[in-house]
Design a protein that fits this description.
The chain is an alpha/beta fold and 432 residues long. 30% of the residues lie in helices and 28% in strands.
Length: 432
């Protein structure tokens, strides 16, 4: 999928150093900082564990898959960072029967998302026993609801499973795409316990739809290490992409400021965004489109900057053939200095950014693969342009103008010498 980080403000330690002899005052200031508006929302993680009947299989270092998963969960519970709020959800843990309708509703929250009580969480995990079906899609929907909230902060689902979803037609990959299409800042990472091509394809698709990762794990130590790594990653500072919906034409494009944005782009379509650039500034933009589903081999992504009247300023493109996870392109456009006769403050120039792709479904039967659109991540920055007005970077040559000049001069001199030698040889031939 195109992956960036959020800032943290640490004031308590600084107050402690400055106020050395006033520990009480420092403590009060630290509390104010932690509880005030500058405090960073707690990252949330929910572990989703497959407890279906197949987890009884003993093929992970001589243990059952369930035993290895329990040990991994216990290791994670012991090591989870204090700032992370952790929850646990199961699928296939309660209904052992053959009724598919009931089996496909078998998902529940084993431990609520919040500050971790390590003893209570371990006790809950210890009660699990491989039982029923594999309703991955419903479990993902439930986990997304468990992590829902308006307070911000990173949210991550870690799915551990040993099999395909058995509750079609609710495709878990489509569920993941729908979650991502809502603009929810939620990443799904998947861990597969069986090296099976179909399982790998489904779990990879789920992860790719939200910018997550898929990992095949066949040893209990690797499982523990990977789950701990993903939980720790949730605590890393991140920059949350801002959801934006691009328009179908430049005239209707939403205005965006420098920053990181996310959108969904159906196959073979165009998305337009508008950025205001002042004279003397340089617009820098890049786009990444994640191929989160099976597509035709030949593909391309185009990023163009055009004026409000449709005149192209600059473009960047990337194309290829064969499987890819993410394809990216970028551009730079410096706006020249100019004098504004009406005011001392020069007016900004609206520049439209067009993102288009040439992805196509892998087959005619996959025509509906265009919905809900592939994940698109757009980065926009506006910086001061070249200070020297004669800098030919404004003309697209960068600082390689001197090389171009040398090549032109060398070609001219080479032509003169070659012509002189040709005439000399002709004259010698006629003489003899």
């Amino acid at each position: 999928m195109i992956t960036t980080r959020r800032a943290a403000v640490v004031v308590a330690a600084l107050l402690t150093v400055v106020a050395g002899a006033l520990p009480a005052a420092s403590t009060a200031a630290a509390a104010t900082t932690a509880d005030g508006p500058s405090a960073r929302p707690a990252p949330k993680v929910e572990l989703v564990l497959d407890v279906s009947g197949s987890m009884k299989t003993r093929d992970i270092d001589g243990q059952s898959r369930m035993s290895a998963a329990k040990q991994a969960f216990n290791d994670v519970i012991d090591a989870v960072p204090e700032e992370v709020e952790l929850g646990i959800r199961t699928l296939g843990a309660d209904y052992p029967g053959e009724d598919k309708a009931r089996g496909c509703k078998d998902t529940r929250q084993l431990y609520p998302v919040g500050p971790i009580d390590r003893t209570e969480a371990k006790t809950a995990v210890a009660t699990l026993s491989p039982t029923g079906w594999t309703p991955i899609g419903p479990a993902l929907l439930g986990a997304a609801d468990d992590l829902d909230g308006d307070e911000g902060g990173s949210r991550r689902i870690v799915l551990i499973s040993d099999g395909e979803d058995t509750c079609g037609p609710l495709d878990p990959c489509e569920v993941a795409r729908e979650i991502a299409a809502k603009g929810v800042d939620l990443v799904i990472d998947t861990l597969g316990l069986v090296p099976n091509a179909k399982i790998r394809q489904q779990l990879s698709c789920i992860a790719g739809a939200t910018g997550g990762t898929y990992t095949a794990v066949q040893h209990k130590e690797d499982l523990s290490d990977k789950v701990k790594q993903l939980v720790d990653r949730a605590a890393d500072p991140v920059v949350t992409p801002v959801p934006v919906e691009g328009a179908a034409a430049c005239a209707d494009a939403p205005k965006i400021e420098p920053g990181l944005y996310t959108d969904r782009q159906p196959l073979g379509t165009h998305r337009w965004y508008r950025v205001d650039v002042l004279p003397g500034q340089e617009l820098r933009a890049s786009v990444s489109v994640a191929a989160d589903r099976r597509l035709a081999d030949d593909y391309g992504v185009l990023l163009r900057a055009v004026t409000a009247h449709g005149r192209e300023l600059v473009r960047g493109s990337e194309a290829g053939s064969g499987r890819t996870d993410v394809i990216s392109s970028g551009l730079r456009h410096p706006e020249r200095e100019r004098e504004d006769a009406d005011t001392d403050k020069p007016a900004a120039t609206p520049v439209c950014l067009e993102v288009s792709n040439s992805f196509a479904p892998a087959s005619a039967k996959a025509a509906d693969a265009s919905a809900p659109g592939m994940p698109l991540e757009l980065t926009v920055d506006v910086v001061d342009g070249p200070s020297d007005a004669s800098d030919t970077a404004a003309f697209g040559l960068g600082r390689g103008w001197w090389l171009l000049g040398v090549l032109v001069l060398a070609g001219f001199l080479g032509g003169l010498i070659f012509g002189w030698l040709s005439r000399w040889r002709f004259a010698v031939w006629r003489t003899h």
